[in-house]
Amino acid sequence: MNYAPQDALVVVDFQNDFCSGGSLTICGAEDILPLINSLIVQAYEASSLIVASRDWHPKNHISFKQRGGPWLEHCVQGSFGAQIHPNLKLPSTSKIISKGMDSETDQYSAYDKTDLNYLMQQNKICRVFIVGLALDYCVKATAIDAARLGFETHLIINATKSVTPSNASQCLTEMRLAGIRIN
Fold first, then answer.
1. For the chain, which residues make up each domain, given as ranges?
2. Mean pLDDT score across all residues of the chain
3. What are phi and psi of 139, to 5 degrees?
4. Res 1: pLDDT
5. Which residue among 138, 140, 145, 161 is the active-site one?
6. Least C-beta-crowded within 10 Å: which of 82, 90, 159, 167?
7. Which pTM does this prediction carry?
């Protein structure tokens, strides 16, 4: 990738609970770590903004099965599962965006009720490159919001994985229709 200072690399939800042994394991999640780490190095060397989003749920979050939601308990604030995967090599200058902190609100997009858009505006970001987990949920929602907010938005397809791989084709179609460039 040819990053510039007006670009942002957004790494979506690369947390322990979505990786091997986690409560919501995404098959092959760790397989994309070398590529994501390479993209992080390139973005850092170009003085691009690097952001990592994370689910940061309270114990009784509305998305959890015990409250009638679709998901097993995951990424509970302060837990091992909520931590960023230890092999994700984020520079100390990276920004962390927490989402899903209100027990009564589900949030898939890293832009939803966070300061990510403000952070992008403050850094005069024009292009956003999105990678991470999971393509069919938080990655898709984040990418669509980035495009809706007027950013030239790129999804780096080889640096993301789906919860349900059979959903990938439909997700890519939805993103293309939203103006997202698939790289």
1. 7-182
2. 97
3. -65, -50
4. 78
5. 138
6. 167
7. 0.97
